[in-house]
Amino acid sequence: MNEEEKETPRGAPPAAPGGKALQFDGRWTELLPIVLVNLLLTIITIGIFRFWARTRVRRYLWSRARLYGEPLEYTGTGLELFVGFVVVFFVVLLPLTLIFFAAEMLSQSGRDLAGIFMLFATYLAIFWLIGAAVYRAQRYRMSRTQWRGIRGAQLERGYRYGAIALGFLFLNGFTLGLTAPVAAQTLYGYRMNRRYFGSGRFRFKAPVEAIYPTYFVCWILAVPTLFISLFWYYARYFSHIARHTAFEGLGFTFDIKPGQLFWFWFVNLLIMVFTLTLGSPFVAMRKIRFLAENLQVSGTLDFETIRQTDQAGPSIGEGLAEAFDVGGI
Prior knowledge:
It is a single chain. This protein is 58% helix and 12% strand. It is of the alpha+beta class. It has a domain of 105 residues. Helix 2 runs antiparallel to helix 3, helix 8 runs antiparallel to helix 9 and helix 10 runs antiparallel to helix 11. The longest helix is centred in the middle third of the chain and has 32 residues. It is globular and about 70 Å long.
């Protein structure tokens, strides 16, 4: 078999066991030894091994996720993540530290207004970079995810996305959260409409007003219910965006109950609190399992039409996400 045949799926994939397009069979008993070894090596190396630790967890989780009966593959490396962080340290974190130091010096010298302005501009830049970091992390992971030899891709570098996210941050603050559905759906659509798998493209388009009645009621009840009412909105929101997302000839549904979503979130919170965040790999595994159990795929797709993407992925890892701790697993 030549390389082109290896990279291009031929015909429809085999039927998945149980008729589910997406399945996940990861076990905590298999993940636990990986996490413990990662923890030991991270301590020994004073934190440096965490990039390779994250890669080992991703490779396990990806390999346990099966699409139409065949596993996904994570091809990223710890070295890529390490180099990405080193670049961001010198290009972003070190200059930001120097700017904070300069602002403090201005304040101490009596130039308070200049110092305040410098700090304000710096915080704007940080929130802009955090938005870009989220996008770039997803872009990197898409480019390092393969299925039957075909890899994913996500266009653009994320800096425009960061500016849009920053604008919505201010808008949500000024409206006390009333514009949150517009922000969430716009940002989701921005990411999804620039996402590819091979030559196939994801698409998203939906009327945001369809979810506003639910959100407004939940927003009104948020404080009296200690924000538990928002789980009714999020259950509606996830179902809404799934129904309006498509990949070539495939459609999606993700119908979950508010109570189901609440207990899923609550157990994840308990894991993070009682393990002092060391249990994040297990939370990531629960998220993938939750998605696989509740996501339904419909429609047909001629897999012979899907070819390898010609989009070049990033050469280094998600350094910004690592720097601002927004990358997750």
